[in-house]
Design goal:
about 190 residues; mainly alpha; globular; TVP38/TMEM64 family membrane protein; TMEM64; transmembrane
Length: about 190
Amino acid sequence: MTEEQVQHWFDLFGSLGYIIGFLLPFIEAFLPILPIIVFVIVNVNAYGLVIGTLLAWLGTVIGSYIVFLIFRRLTHTKYMKKLQQRTSVQRLIHFIDRRGIIPIFILLCFPFTPSAFVNIVASLSHIRAHVYLTVLFASKLVMIGLIGWLGNDITTLFTNPTRLILIMIVFVIVWFIGRKIEKYFMHSSGE
C-alpha cells in the first residue's frame, strides 16, 4: 500500500465522519473475519491516538456486548444446545464457571483470538451480563490501546523500517501467545 493510498483512506474516513470509525470495529464483532487491526490503525491515523482508539474501543465493546446479549437470549434454541455439546465449548464453559473472568479477559486481550466465539461461549456460561461488560471494557482497552499505540503513525512505517520490524515482531509474539492460550482453552483432542 502506497502513501497515496493510505492518504485516500484517511480522506474517505474524514468525509464520512466518526461514524465509520465506530461502525467498522462494531461490525467486526459480528463478522470476525474482518481485520480489527487494520480498522484500529486506520482510526488512529485518521483521528489521532486518543479519538481513534476511543472510537475503535467503543465500537468493538458495544458490538461484542450485543453479540453476547443476542446469544444469551438464544441459549435454549436447538442450534445453541448443539453448540453446547461440543467438547471445546464445554471445556471453556466449565473453565469459565470454575475460574471466573480471568480466562475471558486474557483471551480477549489478544487481537487474534476469535472474539465472536468467546462472546458466544461466555453467553452460554453463568457469567453475569454486567460482569462480562466490565471484562469487555478492560480487555478491549488493552487490545485496542496496544494496536493503536503500535500503529499510531503509519507514515513512519514507510520511512522507518526499524519501527515496522518492531511492530511485526510484537504482533508475531502476541499472535503466538494468543494461539497458545486459545489452543489451551478451546481445543481438545476429541474434536
